[in-house]
Amino acid sequence: MKTISKAKLAPNKKEEMTNISIYDISINTLDGKPINLSMFKGKHILFVNVASKCGFTRQYEDLQKLNDRYQNDLVIIGSPCNQFGNQEPGDATQIQSFCQRNYGVTFLLTEKIKVRGVKQHPLYSWLTQKQLNGKKNSSVKWNFQKYLVDKSGGLIDYYFSTTSPLSSKIEKHLK
Predict the structure, then answer these.
(1) Rounded distance, CA 3 to CA 162, Å?
(2) CA distances, 44 to each of 39, 47, 98, 106, 173 (Å)
(3) Do the Cβ atoms of 138 and 161 come closer than 8 Å?
(4) CA distance 86 to 89
(5) 32 CB contacts (<8 Å, ≥6 apart)?
(6) What is the pTM for the complete model shown?
């Protein structure tokens, strides 16, 4: 499996950015262990940028319900991000503890990342750039924006923070 580094996703390397699979991107768990996204081939993946001090933080509860409901066909990956109102100031231990204690979160949490701007993580470059995902451009507007990927690694769509994880807009793709 080839691994896509931040250098390969730099704007001056556009020729290297075509035909990149979501499964080629590297990201670590909250405790620093590599996540092999190709392990999730054959399942939907819902990527969500998360924060513990946001008005949408209560969505952790519905994300966990969605995770439990579709555990055989869906992987939820939360990526802590502190870019919106400094609403995720915690370190890895604090974030993990908060999510488990307050919402019983068992779904996968990644390292804290940037989801927009010049230091945007390659995962979010893929999710937000049509030239990478082959579907559409978007920008992450706030915490708890969701990106749904199909069982073959193709972007289905994205959903703003106001869309509940249990919305029919999302669930219709999982049934």
Answers:
(1) 33
(2) 11, 10, 26, 17, 9
(3) no
(4) 6
(5) 92, 111
(6) 0.90
Give the C-alpha separation, 169 to 28, whole Å.
29
Contact 16, 132 (CB under 8 A): no
Tokens of 157: 């769509």
Sign of the C-alpha dihedral, residues 64, 70, 72, 75? Answer: negative
Please list the residues that pair with 46 across neighbouring strands: 76, 148
- Which structure tokens are listed for 119? 């230091």
Band (pLDDT 50/70/90 cuts) for residue 18 is low
Query: What is the H or E stretch that residue 109 is in?
Result: strand 108-109
SS3 67: helix
Phi, psi (deg, nearest 5) at residue 139: -135, 145
Residue 132 one-letter amino acid = L
Q: What is the mean pLDDT of the chain?
A: 91
Whether 54 sits among the annotated catalytic residues: the reply is: yes
- Tens-place pLDDT, residues 105-160: 999 999 999 999 999 999 999 999 999 999 999 999 999 999 999 999 999 999 99
Catalytic entry in 54, 77, 99, 127? 54
The yes-or-no verdict on residue 14 having pLDDT over 90 is no
